[in-house]
Amino acid sequence: MNGNIKTLHLSNLPRRPESIPNFIRLLLKAINPVNEYALSPSLDLPTNTTASYPTELELLDSKNNIIAISRSHSKKLSSTCFITFVTADDAKVFLETYKSKPLMVNGRRVLIEYAKKESLLAIALDETKPGLFEKILNTRHKQKLLKLDEDASELHTMKRKSRRLRSKLRKQGLDETRIAQKIKEFQDMAIKTKQDEISKRLPSSKPSTQKQPTHKIIDNPPNNKLLVQNIPNGTTEAEIEQLFKGEGFKGIRLVAVRNVAFIEYESIEQATIVKDSLGKDPSWKGSIIYITFAK
């Protein structure tokens, strides 16, 4: 299984520099001291993304056939990264090379192993599994929509629990009529419990303090930054990141007093994919949020 994977996981890397481009150049220099991007910081790093696929790939390192290096934005995972290669053989050769002589980056011995899962870019390039990339994107899109729509999420959960209950009752030998009755009782109880929870959370007679946009929402020309307006009061950057994090995500600037946030991505294409996947004026945490391109 591992022999067919194009993605490697590296750990015990230095946490600095925090800048991802500078981090990539540091790693490339350790891997290949004559790498052009490591030697010339003025050169723009190639960005091979699923958004631009299937255009021609640009190599980050021609010696090792590296097409992507991705690093988590989480501080807890900042000492790790993933490297995607053109082929599984390239990944295997790289891994074998550093078994005999460890890869050292700023005095740290880097641990290298196969990734548990392929990167999205590697999956997009895999012609042996047609349709898998689109299936994964559709699944992620549905998961994001479920997070946005509380009612749809609860219905999805109820259906899943109902299927499990049906399977359990069949194993107990109950006939289909009795099973249908049991499932209806379960669903009725779940609905009643939810209604009771809503009743307890009914809003008071005090007017809402949530700020609403007083101006017309006008979208700007596409760029790599999104502007999110009408964010619910009390929302944290971590919650916003969970909703907007995708390939190429760089960071968030939350302006809580204005109920707005700016989300930055590495490219216009990546920002557009996230914007389109969330749809027009989605409902989130009980509020309609407005997503446009920033100026």
UniProtKB/TrEMBL annotation:
<feature type="domain" description="RRM">
    <location>
        <begin position="224"/>
        <end position="295"/>
    </location>
</feature>
<dbReference type="InterPro" id="IPR012677">
    <property type="entry name" value="Nucleotide-bd_a/b_plait_sf"/>
</dbReference>
<dbReference type="InterPro" id="IPR000504">
    <property type="entry name" value="RRM_dom"/>
</dbReference>
<keyword id="KW-0694">RNA-binding</keyword>
<dbReference type="Pfam" id="PF00076">
    <property type="entry name" value="RRM_1"/>
</dbReference>
<dbReference type="InterPro" id="IPR035979">
    <property type="entry name" value="RBD_domain_sf"/>
</dbReference>
<dbReference type="GO" id="GO:0003723">
    <property type="term" value="F:RNA binding"/>
</dbReference>
<feature type="region of interest" description="Disordered">
    <location>
        <begin position="196"/>
        <end position="222"/>
    </location>
</feature>
<protein>
    <submittedName>
        <fullName>Similar to Saccharomyces cerevisiae YBR119W MUD1 U1 snRNP A protein, homolog of human U1-A</fullName>
    </submittedName>
</protein>
